[in-house]
Amino acid sequence: MIYLVLAISFILECIFSNLVNVSSIFIPLFLITSFTILYPFFKKENHSFLITITIFGLIYDIVFYNSTFINTITFFMCGLTIKFTYNFYKYNIFSSNIINVFTIIIYRIISYILLFLIGYMNFNISYLLKGIYSSIIVNVIYGIILYIIIYSLPNIFKIKRK
């Protein structure tokens, strides 16, 4: 079920990215949001979580950016962030979305720093801030919907979290 949700999130991100203009305030990061919501299912398998998020980061690099290792590194760092922050919060819709927002901010900052360091872009704080706030709105909505779906399914199908 976990990998099905991740695959659907990836496909939705591909579709949504084609429908929304790059300068829009609704930039999707559905895959990062999915990992944030699904982390409790990986709780006892931290290595599996980090490997999975890194592999999806590599796929994300290949499909969206035609680059290697920028999003792989960024997704891995986000995985560490998710893992670390879930140690301080209980699993509920509110805390999951706080962690989601925090992870999106970390993703944008790390991506921006890496792109700046390799010389792809110049330093511009307003561009970084626009990237952060343009990702938060749609991803919080997606996180709420995904949380409701994911956490109502185990009750219906008797699926247990790890």
Helix- and strand-based class?
mainly alpha
Distance between the ends: 13 Å
Mean pLDDT: 85
Estimate the strand proportion: under 5%
The biggest sheet amounts to: none
Number of helical runs? 6
How many DSSP E strands? 0
Total domain count: 1
Q: Radius of gyration in whole Å, from Cα? A: 15 Å
| Backbone shape | globular
State the low-pLDDT regions, or none: none
Order of helices and strands: HHHHHH
Q: Care to give the gist of this entry?
A:
The protein is mostly helical and 162 residues long. The protein has one domain (2-157). Helices cover 77% and strands 0% of the residues.
Description:
The protein is globular and about 50 Å long. It is an all-alpha fold and 162 residues long. The longest helix is centred in the last third of the chain and has 33 residues. It has one domain. It starts with a helix and ends in a 5-residue tail after the last helix. 77% of the residues lie in helices and 0% in strands. It contains six helices and no strands.
SSE blueprint and pairings:
Elements: H1 2-19, H2 30-42, H3 46-65, H4 70-85, H5 93-117, H6 125-157
Helix pairs in contact: 1-2, 2-3, 2-4, 2-5, 2-6, 3-4, 4-5, 5-6
